[in-house]
Each structure stands twice: as structure tokens, then as C-alpha cells.
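Priority: medium. Attachment 1 of 2:
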């Protein structure tokens, strides 16, 4: 019966083992997955840079050049000719340029904060998929070890049956135990394949990280809170910008005219300077202000809701981490007790005091205790990742 000692060694296993030779951290995986998404942000980034350039221009809109020609050639044809060249220059109203610069700058900051927010959400998806894959990987490894042990027990029992040392019932029980273990392994492999493929889909084909995260404090610049705050600020500056634009853009008109009235007269030149001031436009402006006010209200409500959500997530993360640590400590004690019982039952089985069914049940308890202890360690690591996520940690 000493072979059972060798068989039980297979129950001990580690979970933080790389699938490949190259170690990877969550940060490396996140950077890889995030880099694959940069194309979708490029156009919007260029738009915000263009808005900043526009707000810093000398004129709110491009100047307009006009050229006109007047002639009596088609009717009297007495030589009347007139050429006029003019330019209309849009003008910033007092405070309009600074409001436009503020709005463009805040919108760009809101865009960058929105990027950080999306990266934080991607980190959360990766964290969940990562630990789901690691836990399922542990189940596969555990089920494989269990099958290896029970297969050896079944083979040993079959040999003893031929030698007349055990009853057919014990051989039947050993065979059933091995078949159940094969079923568990097949289910564990299917679950792991699904979890691993899900991680690869999110990570754009990266390897599973093998380096567990270190618990970090809450980031004062939480991506979700920063994004919500800047969305509100952006709506505020847009409201200020639109409110100061109740009428259209005034224009400075400058033109030069060269003309004559007849063939025998010389051309005469004159310069004209004018100012065009828009009148009205209040209805359109009121509609824009109303739309921005609605967006501002939505942003403020969203910000308040996110503040409450983050606070709740952080409280839940703290409780979950403490619970995971307590469970890990309890699982360690349970494993020691299961191992102690297994040693006693093994000795009794060797002396004929216990049958195979009871011995298999004891091995099952030890296996479950080892599985629970290894899983609880992974649960602690996952709780740390969830706590970092709740605290806004993405770097």
C-alpha cells in the first residue's frame, strides 16, 4: 500500500505557472490591447487639435475675397468699366476668442480623460477575463491530478482483484471513481478553453499574465471620476461660449474700385471701408443654449451617479479582499486537517480497518481541501486586482 503515498504527491500543484517562456504583466497586456485600439481615436484627436488651432486664429472664420466687374459692353458700349476687389474680415467680439480657446482646451482635456476612462474599463475587462482563465486553468490542473491519482488506484485495485486480495465491489468503485474524474476533467477543459479564448479576444491575442498584481492605493485621478468631471466642465464652457455668441460674426469690409464712365476718360480709383454687424439670430442661439443646458444637466447627474458607484465599488472591493484572505486562511487550516485525516485513514486501510470506499472518500476530501486552498489563493489575487480596478489603477 506504500504506492498510495506516491499517488498522493500528485495532489500538490502550483497555479502561477506560465503558459509560455516569456513572463507578462497585466500592464504589458493592457498596453498591447490598448495599442490595437488607437486608430479609432485618431480622427477625434485631430479634430480637437484643429479646434484649438482655430480658437487661436486671428479671425473666427477665414477672410472672404470678392472680385466683381461692371461693363456696358452688351448694351450701350460707351466704355463704362468698373473693377472692384474686396476682402471681408470676420472679427472676434470682446471675450469671444478667450471663450473659444477655453472651450477647445477643455474639450481636448475631456477627450483625453475619456480615453483614460476607456482604458480603465478595458483594464477591468482584462482583469476579470485574466482571473477567470487562471481559475479555470487551476481547475483543469486539479482535475488532471485527481484523474492521475484515481487511475493509479484503479489500476492497483484491478491488479489486486486478479490476485484475489480485494472484492469485485471495490474494483467497481475504483473504476467508477476514475470515470467520474475523466468527466470532471473534460468539463474543466471546456470551461478553460472558453475562458482563455475570451481573454485572448479582449487582449488581442496576448498571453495570460503570470505576475499577480500588488495592492495599490486609490488613484486621486480616478479615470471615471476625472472623465465625468471634465464632461461637466466641457458642457459649462460650451454654454459660456454659446451664450456669448448670441448674434452672428461681425465683419470688416475693405475694397478697392477702379472705374471709368467712357472710352475717353481715365480710370479712377477709390477705397471703401465698411463694418457689417449681424442683427438678430437670438432664436437660433436660444435653441443651442437649451440643448447645451440639457447636456450639462445630464453630465451633472451622470457625475453624481459615478461618484456613488465608485464609492460603492471601493467598499465592496475592500470587503471582498478581506473575505478572500479569511477564506484563504481557513482553507489552509482545512487542508492540514484533511491531510492529517488522510494519513490516519490510509494506515487503517492498509490494516484492513477501512474499506476502499471510505478511503476514496477521504482522498476526495483531501483533494477538495487542496483544490479549495489553491483556489482561495487565486481568489485573493483576483480580489487585489478588483480592488485596484475600483481604485482607478491602470498603470
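Attachment 2 of 2:
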Amino acid at each position: 500500500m506504500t504506492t498510495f503515498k506516491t499517488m498522493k504527491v500528485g495532489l500538490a500543484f502550483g497555479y502561477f505557472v506560465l503558459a509560455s517562456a516569456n513572463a507578462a504583466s497585466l500592464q504589458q497586456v493592457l498596453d498591447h490591447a490598448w495599442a490595437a485600439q488607437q486608430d479609432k481615436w485618431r480622427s477625434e484627436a485631430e479634430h480637437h487639435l484643429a479646434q484649438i488651432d482655430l480658437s487661436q486664429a486671428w479671425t473666427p472664420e477665414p477672410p472672404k475675397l470678392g472680385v466683381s466687374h461692371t461693363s456696358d459692353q452688351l448694351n450701350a458700349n460707351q466704355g463704362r468699366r468698373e473693377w472692384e476687389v474686396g476682402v471681408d474680415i470676420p472679427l472676434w467680439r470682446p471675450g469671444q476668442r478667450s471663450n473659444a480657446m477655453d472651450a477647445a482646451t477643455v474639450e481636448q482635456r475631456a477627450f483625453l480623460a475619456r480615453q483614460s476612462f476607456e482604458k480603465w474599463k478595458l483594464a477591468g475587462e482584462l482583469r476579470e477575463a485574466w482571473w477567470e482563465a487562471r481559475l479555470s486553468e487551476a481547475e483543469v490542473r486539479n482535475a488532471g491530478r485527481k484523474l492521475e491519482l484515481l487511475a493509479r488506484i484503479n489500476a492497483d485495485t484491478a491488479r489486486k482483484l486478479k490476485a484475489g486480495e480485494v472484492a469485485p465491489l471495490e474494483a467497481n468503485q475504483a473504476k467508477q471513481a476514475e470515470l467520474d474524474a475523466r468527466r470532471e476533467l473534460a468539463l474543466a477543459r471546456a470551461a478553460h478553453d472558453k475562458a482563455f479564448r475570451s481573454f485572448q479576444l479582449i487582449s488581442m491575442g496576448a498571453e495570460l499574465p503570470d505576475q499577480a498584481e500588488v495592492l495599490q492605493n486609490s488613484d486621486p485621478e480616478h479615470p471615471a471620476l476625472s472623465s465625468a468631471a471634465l464632461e461637466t466642465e466641457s458642457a459649462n464652457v460650451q454654454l459660456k461660449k454659446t451664450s456669448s455668441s448670441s448674434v452672428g460674426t461681425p465683419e470688416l469690409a475693405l475694397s478697392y474700385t477702379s472705374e471709368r464712365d467712357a472710352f475717353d476718360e481715365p480710370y479712377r480709383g477709390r477705397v471703401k471701408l465698411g463694418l457689417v454687424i449681424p442683427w438678430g439670430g437670438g432664436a437660433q442661439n436660444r435653441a443651442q443654449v437649451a440643448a447645451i443646458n440639457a447636456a450639462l444637466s445630464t453630465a451633472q447627474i451622470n457625475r453624481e451617479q459615478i461618484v456613488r458607484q465608485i464609492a460603492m465599488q471601493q467598499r465592496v472591493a475592500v470587503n471582498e479582499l478581506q473575505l478572500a484572505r479569511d477564506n484563504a486562511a481557513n482553507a489552509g487550516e482545512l487542508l492540514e486537517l484533511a491531510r492529517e485525516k488522510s494519513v490516519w485513514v490510509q494506515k487503517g486501510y492498509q490494516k484492513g480497518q477501512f474499506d476502499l470506499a471510505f478511503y476514496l472518500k477521504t482522498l476526495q476530501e483531501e483533494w477538495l481541501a487542496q483544490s479549495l486552498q489553491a483556489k482561495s489563493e487565486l481568489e485573493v489575487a483576483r480580489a487585489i486586482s478588483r480592488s485596484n480596478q475600483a481604485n482607478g489603477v491602470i498603470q
